[in-house]
Every structure is written in structure tokens, then in C-alpha cells.
Design a protein that fits this description.
The protein is mostly helical. A hairpin with a 3-residue loop joins strand 1 and strand 2. The longest helix is centred in the middle third of the chain and has 28 residues. The relative contact order is 0.09.
């Protein structure tokens, strides 16, 4: 849930969105504290764990700024591949691919299954949502985690196909009944992966998003059961961060967003229903607006240009959170979303608004803002109109 703060005319480092909640410092501060002699006295007062955390945040920030987040000509625009991927991600995938090819060529069925099991673990590990423990520790943005989720999913399908081919090359010795069982469970898992890939294609996912989500869940369960039965027990370790994150979103977050934090009037966590306006516009567009500064509590919804937020409308579905770009300017008095009716959920929203009598017919839950524009729009040498 977003930490909302009162507006301030001057910048306060304590309110910086980059401030780490565990160390109490921003990345730039941690960098100064670890190298500047004038902060050595402060460092001596810190515990060993606090010093380690400061060093980790500083190192993570420097690596992200100087290596991992640096764009690569052509590759970043076309494939979203950055310098860090050339250093770490792509070499890792090439090593896994080479290992699978070698083991397959040697007719080693068991070892050829290890690389796809490892990439499957990474696929599950990258399904976590925003504010998860994994992303906090690694510093990977949610948008980047989603990119890696897709990338490792593609790699898993390719490596699994090579692993399946090793069964055809292997000798016929061993337990025939066990081989048949392994072949059947492997085929089920592989076909489920193929269907997940087809349903995740942009045109299908955007057009039938609700169907995509439900089938993704069903096929995910099929893959897990079939893969574990096949012998890929190691992949279960990737489910743990996803499972913890899922419980947080379904149990804790939904409750805190609908009722607010107990005893806190300044963090109700829900857009005040009497301050929201929802209107149906021409072109199948639904406009949602609410004050940037909440009138009853004074809390401010702080966001930057190009960011998005997840919206949930319990009357439609209390479990579905959909991302939408904030269409208003950060300096406007009203926060605005323009939502086009394209999929099942957005069509239900449009219908509910058209049939409603009042301008704010239902509660709206909000989680955000998230994301950041890929260029510095505040710097005229970097971003300009021609």
C-alpha cells in the first residue's frame, strides 16, 4: 500500500521514495556514508547488520546505475535488453543451453533435465508482485521482474524440448514402467507450458485478459504437479517467494485497502467514495477521478509522469488488480485514469458505470504508483520535442 504524505514545499530526504525502510537512508546517502570520512563516526555507532545493509544498498545502487540499467543501442529499443543482461542474464542462458545440448548429446536424461528445472525455478521466483521481499532485496524493479519472468519462461520451453529429445536418444535400459510415467508427466507439463505461452501473446492476453488470468492459474497448477511428478522437485523452491507474496496480496493487502490500517486516519488505504467521480465518455472510455489531496484526511497521492497504479473494484472482483497509466499531470488537483473498454474486466466496469445512477457508485481500491519513464523528461538535453 502506498505511503501517502502531505505536500511539502522543500525536499525532505526522509520522505524520499528511494529511501530504504530498513536502513532509513536513500541510495545516494548510503553511497556517501560508505566513502566519506565525515560519516565514519556515525558508521561506528551502527550494528554490523546495519553496516552490511548500508553497504548492500550502496553497492546495489551503483551496479544498477553504472551497469545493469544502462541501455544498449538497438537491443534495448527492440528487445528491452540492457547492459546488465549482456553481462549476466544472456551468458547464464547460453551456459544453460550449452549444458542441455551436451547432456542431450550424451544421452544423459537426468542431467539434461537440470537446466530447465533451474529456469523454471526462476520463472516462479519472478512472478512476485510489487513491494515483495525478493524485489526489495535484489533491487529489481517489478517491470524488470516481469521481463525476466517471460524470458526465463521462453528459455524453460526450449530447454524442456531438448530434455524431451534426450528421451528419444537414450538407451532402452532401465524400468520401462518408470520411463513411461516420466514421459507422460513430462509431456503434460510441456503441453501446459505451450498453452501458457500461446495465451500470453499480446493480442490474446489483452483481448481476453480475464480468461488469460484464470487459465494461467489452472495451467500453472498443472505444470507444478506434472513437473514434480516428473522429478523436478528443485523448482518448488521458486514457489516460496511467490506463495508468500500471494498470501500478502490476498489476505493482508485486501483487508488493509478495504478497511485501512487500524487506528490510523491518515492511511485509510482507500479512495474516499464520496470524493470519487466515475463517468462514461464517448469511445468506450471510462474516466475515474479523485482529489490528489484527500479532503478528509489531508493525505496526498504523490506520483510522477508516466507512472501507473493497480486498481481493484470489489463489486466486479475483489481478487483482480489491473494496472492503468495515470493520465493526469502530477501537478493537477485531480488524479485521473482513462480506461478503454477492451477486455472482460474493463467492459464490466463500463457497464457498471453506464447503469449507475450516482457518479461514484462503488468503492475503488488503489495500489501505487509504480514504474518510471525510461528517459529523463525533466532534462531538456535528453528529452525534447521537435
Amino acid at each position: 500500500m502506498t505511503n501517502l504524505q502531505s505536500p511539502s514545499s522543500t525536499f525532505d530526504p526522509a520522505l524520499s521514495p528511494d529511501r530504504n525502510t530498513e536502513t532509513g537512508i536513500t541510495p545516494s546517502e548510503s553511497y556517501v556514508n560508505t566513502v566519506s570520512p565525515r560519516h565514519h563516526g556515525e558508521l561506528e555507532k551502527l550494528s554490523r547488520s546495519q553496516k552490511w545493509m548500508r553497504s548492500w544498498v550502496a553497492a546495489r545502487w551503483r551496479l544498477s546505475r553504472n551497469i545493469y540499467s544502462v541501455p544498449v543501442p538497438m537491443l534495448t529499443i527492440r528487445f528491452d535488453i540492457k547492459q546488465g543482461d549482456l553481462v549476466l542474464t544472456l551468458p547464464l542462458l547460453l551456459i544453460l543451453l550449452a549444458a542441455t545440448v551436451i547432456f542431450t548429446n550424451e544421452h544423459d536424461v537426468k542431467m539434461s533435465g537440470m537446466p530447465p528445472t533451474f529456469t523454471m525455478l526462476l520463472v516462479f521466483g519472478m512472478t512476485v508482485r510489487n513491494n515483495s521481499l525478493l524485489l526489495t532485496v535484489t533491487g529489481i524493479p517489478f517491470e524488470r521482474a516481469l521481463f525476466y519472468h517471460k524470458l526465463f519462461a521462453y528459455a524453460t520451453i526450449i530447454l524442456t524440448a531438448l530434455h524431451a529429445f534426450s528421451y528419444h536418444l537414450a538407451d532402452d535400459d532401465g524400468d520401462e514402467e518408470d520411463k513411461e510415467f516420466k514421459t507422460q508427466t513430462g509431456a503434460i507439463a510441456f503441453m501446459a507450458m505451450i498453452f501458457m505461452y500461446l495465451l500470453s501473446l499480446n493480442k490474446i492476453r489483452r483481448r481476453y485478459f480475464e480468461f488469460f488470468v484464470r487459465m494461467h492459474w489452472i495451467l500453472f497448477i498443472v505444470v507444478i504437479i506434472a513437473a514434480v511428478a516428473h522429478g523436478a522437485f528443485f523448482a518448488l523452491f521458486g514457489i516460496l517467494p511467490w506463495f508468500i507474496d500471494m498470501l500478502y496480496r490476498l489476505v493482508f493487502r485486501s483487508r488493509s485497502y478495504s478497511k485501512g490500517k487500524k487506528g490510523s486516519a491518515s492511511q485509510m488505504g482507500i479512495i474516499a467514495r464520496d470524493q470519487v467521480s466515475i463517468h462514461a465518455l464517448p469511445g468506450n472510455i471510462t474516466r475515474i477521478q479523485f482529489p490528489r489531496v484527500r479532503k478528509d484526511s489531508g493525505e496526498t497521492f504523490e506520483y510522477e509522469a508516466g507512472q501507473y497504479a493497480f486498481l481493484c473494484i470489489p463489486t466486479i472482483s475483489s481478487l483482480e488488480w489491473h494496472p492503468f497509466t495515470i493520465s493526469s499531470s502530477p501537478n493537477e488537483a485531480m488524479v485521473t485514469f482513462h480506461i478503454k473498454a477492451l477486455g472482460d474486466w474493463t467492459r464490466k466496469l463500463r457497464t457498471a458505470v453506464v447503469d449507475a445512477v450516482e457518479s461514484s457508485p462503488f468503492d475503488i481500491l488503489l495500489d501505487g504508483p509504480y514504474g518510471k519513464v525510461s528517459v529523463d523528461i525533466d532534462s531538456s538535453p535528453v528529452y525534447s520535442h521537435y
